[in-house]
Amino acid sequence: MATRNLNSHRSIQDNLLKRIHSGEWQPGSLIPTEAALADEFGCARTTVNRALRQLASEGLVIRKRHSGTRVALTPIRKATLEIPIIRHDVEMRGHTYNHMILKSEALQPPLWVQVRTGLKHHDKMLYLQTLHLSDNRPYMVEDRWVNLNAVPQIEAAPLHEISPNEWLVRKVPYSRGEISFSASLADEEIAGILETKLSAAIFVIERSTWMGDTSITTLKMYYPENYRLTTVL
Amino acid sequence: MATRNLNSHRSIQDNLLKRIHSGEWQPGSLIPTEAALADEFGCARTTVNRALRQLASEGLVIRKRHSGTRVALTPIRKATLEIPIIRHDVEMRGHTYNHMILKSEALQPPLWVQVRTGLKHHDKMLYLQTLHLSDNRPYMVEDRWVNLNAVPQIEAAPLHEISPNEWLVRKVPYSRGEISFSASLADEEIAGILETKLSAAIFVIERSTWMGDTSITTLKMYYPENYRLTTVL
DNA sequence: TTGACATATATGTACGCACATAACAATATT
DNA sequence: AATATTGTTATGTGCGTACATATATGTCAA
């Protein structure tokens, strides 16, 4: 049939999207059932189902059994942030990447790490401070704590060749994570490493990951003021 | 059949995920074909297809026609950030929300707005400065520019009752957006409004939205140092 | 050797059907 | 009147089949 490809789930999705965006279907209102839409488009219900499922996963419609499908009250758009390997970040900007391990010692975790990871003060953790460089200029400082009970192999890893960030992302799986963003002022240590003024604005990303219930690693990343994290909606 | 529900796309997905996380399937390696997996699980290929499609949409596997499916080299985990109505943000923390329009005037856009929106200096824009309050204490300042050619109705909106943020999110659809995060220092104006010290750390979110090619609105949000934006992976 | 062509293969998509499941509605039962 | 029971409805899921499409590989001829 010639009309086959007109009925692809993709074009149906576009069509439905248009009605939502144009205001034909107001936020909160019920839209026709899958069967009705399938009838209208002259396609199988499974095809409409797929289109609607996709729209639901993007948060544009809310689906409930029996009740039907309605346009989301707040068309919550989601921004997706990828968790990158820093080296890729730098190289994608066309710069050359390097890193330096500034500190590496097995320590007892300070309080904020204990709180975040759920580990106790007597648990063995590896503290790593890494400077990431872009074209040999400071790009970001990373303060990382690794749970040695969960990741003992890291003590044998060649962290001078492959950064802790990349090594962990590649080698150690995790099932759950948390990330948060904030702003703070540079203290003496950070200002010294990043070569900024004391009390310069610092963009901070904190991230913790777990595998099941056991903490893998938790870290703070400090970016100088000129850094911008950008993403599309 | 009793084994029917064992073959749901969800459990298949979990099963595949386990193999990726356990390292049984290394990053970059080819995994069995849909047909082979369908055979192994004793289900239809369409079911395996759905499981793999979902994993691909989450960035865990890369699929190519003919070549097959392989585990992503960087099992890129994505964090999803919702674009909230500020009022909900505040109320979810159990505080009461208020807002105040500090400035509201039709102006020619400054250069940074022109760059971001693609509009020219002679285009009519509405400049709105809004203070968002949590329990009557400053929570965030919003500097917003609205394209009056695209959204003329905003001049008649009751912005003292419903904040520009909420009004726009509810009433004006957009098809494309960009969001970025950074840190900066409080200037006199921002420090005054947020009641922080001069040169305090400020967390900045910038957001622009378009409908097709026409800019809708662009804004900067200034949060005081104690603010943290948190999300799960 | 090179390029044009055919072929095999793995994923992509659509269909029609069947049954599962949640939620609401109407009815029957205590 | 309060509680079970049953039915209806819209979405959720799975199956088997068919065909589409991109791409790697092999084949043959210029």
Question: Would you state the CATH class of the largest domain in chain A?
Answer: Alpha Beta
User: What name does the CATH topology of the largest domain in chain A carry?
Assistant: Chorismate lyase
What portion of the residues of chain A fall into strands of 2 or more residues?
35-45%
* Total of domains of chain A: 2
Poorly predicted parts of chain A: 1-5
Largest interface: A-B, 48 and 50 residues
Q: What structural category arises from helix and sheet content of chain A? A: alpha+beta
Q: What is the 3D form of chain A?
A: elongated
Q: Roughly what percent helix of chain A?
A: 25-40%
Q: So what's the oligomer here?
A: homodimer
Can you walk through the features of this model?
- The structure is a homodimer of 233-residue chains.
- The first copy, chain A, is built from 7 helices and 11 strands.
- The model of chain A is unreliable at 1-5 (pLDDT under 50).
- Helices cover 27% and strands 35% of the residues of chain A.
- In chain A, the strands form 2 sheets. The first copy, chain A, has a 6-stranded antiparallel sheet. A 3-stranded antiparallel sheet of chain A has the order 1-3-2, with helices on one face.
- Chain A is an alpha+beta fold.
- The interface between A and B is large, with 48 and 50 residues.
- Strand 8 (176-185) of chain A pairs antiparallel with strand 11 (229-232) of chain B.
- The structure holds a DNA duplex (30 and 30 nucleotides).
